[in-house]
Write a structure and sequence with these properties.
Layout: E1 2-3, E2 15-17, E3 27-31, H1 33-39, H2 45-49, H3 51-55, E4 67-69, E5 72-75, E6 78-82, E7 88-95, E8 101-107, E9 122-123, H4 124-139, E10 146-158, E11 162-172, H5 178-187, H6 192-203, H7 213-235, E12 237-238, E13 260-261, H8 285-296, H9 308-315, H10 317-334, H11 340-356, H12 360-371, H13 377-388, H14 392-409, H15 414-424, H16 432-442, H17 448-457
Antiparallel strand pairs: 1-7, 2-4, 3-10, 5-6, 7-8, 8-11, 9-11, 10-11, 12-13
Helix pairs in contact: 4-16, 4-17, 7-8, 7-9, 7-10, 10-15, 11-14, 12-13, 12-15, 16-17
């Protein structure tokens, strides 16, 4: 691998150097060969032979520079003070095959100075959920951390019950969060200029071409964040805990805790069992992204040339960027051109889904069978299920909408429309029930279901032979939600 460990060269107040605390008897959970090849990990015989020891914390390659990061944050809208890597270590930074810097972050590997009341460990169920979700989002084309693999061990960890300890090697284009700047502003303000230069030079070097590199950098973070959240909304993904310490400066999805993929369409859906006010409900994610950035940006007023007015200019593109990306994406999901009539149909379609609690993923995919009924047998079954769930009144709404939708499609070629719909409407997302079946089997020492779900999610836009009926089956309408916590 091509190591480029730069974070370790920053001011030592920003991190704590330390080795991992080994797990007891680590064993194979799952290994992501695609990520290994992306990193050139697969080309190193020593890394391939000893990956279980590395992820288990028993062996640290000479080129690794393990450290825990300090950062702060606002949690549920309240200042939480110093946080930091309480159970993970930035093990190394490497250039991948695309010359993109990637962080190798080992999660669940013991106590750090930032563990607070925690034990520094991760349990198998949360590890599997993060492993599968990072993989799912990546294959869906949404910027996200991914993972090299995970191990399970004999180390016992107490959460709601005593469980098997596990560790995951997370791979992300950055682990710098909005909360890093919040920490600097509160505890080491003299580092802000140096750290901002590091963020620009490392992650946004194109901003150096601007007459005002800092403002260009801040605007770029705002725009990337808006696009990421638009991608979430389009695919029906809810992060669940959008604290400022859980948002990356690169606009890539980071930190999977109480996440979920929308099933029965309910914009007010809350997937975090601790979110009693619904702050992080699916429909609130765009506004929370704006809130987080608006909280983050004023810290840069300490820098020369940065004022309240210039920061307002940096934040201003957020709404327009989000709306453009989201609306264009909605039109692509319907196979329609981005124009007023298409958007009217799109929002009417979402209202139909909401009013009848129809499955989000299946309903969009079912439209393929509406457009080409003889060519999509799987989608025809989804369409039959959709229409069977409609009341007589809702059926009339559906008939009227589908007639106008098909008429609008005449403005584009059928092939163009179908290509767009196939490429933007997955057959499979990581439903909570899918993840839970994989977890239940893994807790009994059987990882075949983890592998099956992993392979299924590797090609989410195509019907696959390895799928089972439950992979596309939503819960019944009004069924109670599976409670998801940060340790789930």
């Amino acid at each position: 691998m091509r190591y480029q460990n730069t974070y370790v060269n920053l001011d030592t107040r920003l991190y704590h150097k330390q080795p991992p605390t080994p797990l007891e008897n680590p064993r194979i959970g799952h290994f992501n060969l695609q990520v290994a090849q992306q990193l050139s990990w697969a080309d190193d015989e020593d890394l391939m032979a000893r990956w279980v020891e590395i992820l288990g914390g028993q062996y640290v390659p000479a080129e690794f520079r393990p450290l825990s990061m300090a950062y702060a944050g606002h949690q549920f809208g309240q200042w939480a003070g110093q946080l930091g890597d309480g159970r993970g270590l930035l093990m190394a930074q490497v250039l991948d095959n695309n010359d993109t810097l990637q962080d190798l972050h080992l999660k669940g590997i013991g106590l750090t100075p930032y563990s607070r009341m925690g034990d520094g460990r991760a349990v198998l169920r949360s590890t599997i959920r993060e492993y599968l979700c990072g993989h799912a989002l990546t294959q869906l084309g949404i910027p996200s951390s991914n993972a090299l693999g995970f191990v399970v061990s004999d180390t016992r960890v107490r959460r709601e019950r005593v469980e098997a300890g596990a560790a995951l090697m997370r791979v992300a284009d950055s682990h710098i969060r909005l909360g890093h700047v919040e920490w600097i502003a509160s505890f080491a303000p003299d580092l802000l200029s140096e750290f901002t230069d590091y963020m620009i030079d490392t992650y946004y070097p194109e901003c150096r071409q601007s007459e005002t590199p800092v403002l260009a950098f801040l605007t770029a973070v705002v725009e990337r964040t808006a696009r990421m959240i638009a991608d979430w909304q389009l695919i029906g993904f809810a992060h669940g805990v959008m604290n400022t310490d859980n948002l990356s400066i690169t606009g890539s999805t980071l930190d999977f805790g109480p996440f979920g993929f929308m099933e029965r369409f309910d914009p007010a859906w809350i997937n975090n069992h601790s979110d009693h006010t619904g702050r992080y409900a699916y429909q609130n994610q765009p506004a929370i992204g704006h809130w987080n950035l608006n909280t983050w940006l004023p810290h840069f007023m300490r820098l020369e040339g940065v004022t309240r007015d210039t920061l307002a200019d940096c934040l201003a593109p957020y709404e327009a960027t989000f709306m453009q990306h989201y609306q264009q994406g909605l039109c692509r999901k319907l196979g329609l051109p981005h124009e007023k009539e298409s958007l009217t149909l799109a929002f009417e379609w979402l209202t139909l889904l909401e009013d009848n609690l129809l499955d989000y993923t299946n309903s969009f995919r079912a439209l393929l069978a509406l457009v080409a009924p003889d060519d999509y047998s799987h989608e025809q079954q989804l369409l039959s299920t959709l229409t069977a769930e409609l009341t007589d009144e809702a059926s009339k709404v559906w008939q009227d909408w589908s007639t106008r939708y098909l008429a609008q499609l005449r403005s584009v070629s059928v092939k163009q429309a179908l290509d767009s719909m196939r490429e933007n409407n997955p057959v499979y997302v990581l439903r909570n029930s899918m993840a839970q079946r994989a977890i239940t089997a893994a807790e009994q020492g059987q990882f075949e279901e983890v592998n099956r779900v992993f392979e299924l999610l590797a090609d989410p836009y195509n019907v696959q032979d390895i799928a089972i009926e439950l992979d596309s089956k939503p819960p019944t309408p009004h069924a109670p939600q599976m409670p998801i916590s940060c340790s789930s």
